[in-house]
């Protein structure tokens, strides 16, 4: 897989990751290298990663607890304090080794400590590889509201080593693949159909190629619109509803927490229904998406009162304008429209018809 070289940062793959990492470290001569991990990546990923890092700089590890519930300012405060105690300065190098929580939070910490130090993302989950580590969005949740605090600043480089996927359970692989399906829905019908064809078989010999194509799709969108004024909004397809569902379940005693990808899959289902009513998504295309969603067997169901609570959470979506909820919807598979306004009744109907 050929490296993706952008104006301000690069994405490298496989063994080339470590060639480029060591070349960069040799040139930078960092005063200290700090590696952020959670307990999972400390156990499964740190040793093989650090064995390939060639440097005379001191290396320190900061470990945080795993899980979305720890992606918050309190965790940031702990990491900032640890960085100060370790003698972090403007020539330090910060490496986020982990899934989406570690890369999101790590990038935010690095962008804000000492008003910004160099950082590198090493995503170890499929979700982080195809989504969280690409595009320069760094941030944390505020209470149960997703990604309300953050900055847009790309890392020095992102290193995608697919061998880390061998440490993941099937459920986490499926979780990350939902963002890959989304990339097909907004940008490439053939890619969407190729994702359907592997039928969640992550041992399929074409899967690494699909990961690479997914990263290219997201990177191309980001490069065309780094600060989300227009085209980059398309990457939020399924997220207006999905983030609200995810936040609601995190705060609810009656619903289990959802993985991010599961919530986005539910959001894709509802927003596809909205697309049939507002932007001309055909019955044939909708039926493909519906069949995909039904095959997941997520068994999500919400009472009328809960649906209204979820809808109220959409008021915090970052695409909103003047208090008006704006959706990304599909004209067709592979074609989208941004800044769509839909009625609350349509949203309620979408929940009642498809999340039942």
TrEMBL record:
Ranges for domain 3-dehydroquinate synthase N-terminal come to 62-174
Task: Quote a single Gene Ontology cellular component term.
Answer: cytoplasm
InterPro entries cross-referenced by the UniProt entry = Dehydroquinate_synthase, DHQ_synth_AroB, DHQ_synth_fam, DHQS/DOIS_N, DHQS_C
Alphabetically ordered keywords of this record: Cobalt, Lyase, Metal-binding, NAD, Nucleotide-binding, Zinc
**Protein purpose:** Catalyzes the conversion of 3-deoxy-D-arabino-heptulosonate 7-phosphate (DAHP) to dehydroquinate (DHQ).
Which Gene3D superfamilies does the annotation name?
A: 3.40.50.1970, Dehydroquinate synthase-like - alpha domain
- The record places domain 3-dehydroquinate synthase C-terminal at 176-320
Q: Per the record's keyword annotation, is Zinc included, yes or no?
A: yes
Question: Magnesium: is it a keyword of this entry?
Answer: no
Q: Output the Pfam families linked to this UniProt entry.
A: DHQ_synthase, DHQS_C
Provide the E.C. number(s) assigned to this enzyme. Answer: 4.2.3.4
Signal peptide as annotated in the record: none
Alphabetically, the GO molecular function entries are: 3-dehydroquinate synthase activity; metal ion binding; nucleotide binding
Q: Which GO terms describe its biological process?
A: aromatic amino acid family biosynthetic process; chorismate biosynthetic process
Which top EC class is named for this enzyme in its record? Answer: lyase
Protein origin, superkingdom: Bacteria
Q: What name appears for this protein in its UniProt entry?
A: 3-dehydroquinate synthase
Q: Which cofactor does it need?
A: Zn(2+); Co(2+); NAD(+)
Task: Quote the CDD domains the UniProt record gives.
Answer: DHQS
NCBIfam families under this entry? Answer: aroB
